[in-house]
Amino acid sequence: MGYSKEQIKDLETTINNVPCDVVIVGTPIDIGRFMKLNKPLIRVNYLLEELGTPNLTDILESFKKERGL
């Protein structure tokens, strides 16, 4: 999935207008390569451990079944 040029510009404007000291980025790509930002970015990594049910797979399977996909 990707973002249109308009969506990238809108996100850039939003980030630049937020009064903060730093932006924490948890996306798999470096958004700083696509935008001119007026504050520093810190990239983070994370792991997801699902606990209990329904889990993401259950939810996606249910979504597909309801829509005949």
Kindly give the count of domains: 1
Helix content: 25-40%
Percent of residues in beta strands: 5-15%
Mean pLDDT: 92
Biggest pleated sheet: 2 strands, parallel
Strand order of the largest sheet: 1-2
**What is the H/E order?**
HEEH
Helix and strand topology:
Elements: H1 5-17, E1 23-25, E2 41-43, H2 56-66
Put the structure in a nutshell.
The chain has 69 residues and is of the alpha+beta class. It has helices spanning 5-17, 56-66; strands at residues 23-25, 41-43.
Q: Can you characterise this structure?
A:
By secondary structure, the protein is α+β, with helices and mostly antiparallel strands. The protein has helices at 5-17, 56-66; strands spanning 23-25, 41-43. It starts with a helix and ends with a helix.
List the defining traits of the structure above.
about 70 residues, alpha+beta, two-stranded parallel sheet
